[in-house]
Amino acid sequence: MANMFENLIDLTAHQRAAIKHRYRFLMDEYRSRSQKYSLLFYLMRSTMTVGSLAVPALLSLQANNNPNLYWFTWGLSLAVTTANGIMTLFKLESKFLSLHTTMEHLRTETWQYMELAGRYSGHYGHVTPTHSNQYVFYCSRIEKIRMKQVGDEYVKHGESEPGHTPPGQTPGHSGLAVPSPADQAIRRDSVHTSGDESVIEIVQENKKDETETRESVSVPPERFERTVSTGSV
Asked: How high is the pLDDT of residue 138?
């Protein structure tokens, strides 16, 4: 797929070289790591599965006091415990799933960008989406996928940094994409279902009640006494 970037004639030579180099680097890294972790994961999992089934059966055969069988059972039991420890220590299962998921996510995101499909198929006003005006958004998406995988692998849960919204930009809108009608519908639904409008209505009602209360406050005591005395005369 990396060679397909050369056919994007609406991009500059620098842009084509940048995304080609970045995509190839990430895919080569994830492909190599996923193969290594796949080998370790299946090897350790197979050892645990087969050993956990074989050890009880071999223990039932030790009534003959066969020393070779005894030591074989002991070694198999040790291998099962070691495989379980390695799986837990290096988190092979989570890394195996994370690397494969990220690699497929990169492929899907790049294919959508190449074909201007999915999130890249929308329009904003009368602007037609092209590879050129979607280039920055694609680069941003690739780096987000990369940093999400790095955060899942090396950063503890609960230590993520709070999001930052640039000045003049509404939260939840990156300003880099040409939003599609589906994205706009999802954004409207999320606003209606988030409960923000109900909160705004409650705040407005409270402000209205406070205004009516201030307007309906009685006159000060001095004016009240002066009015009463004048009326009595």
From this structure: 94
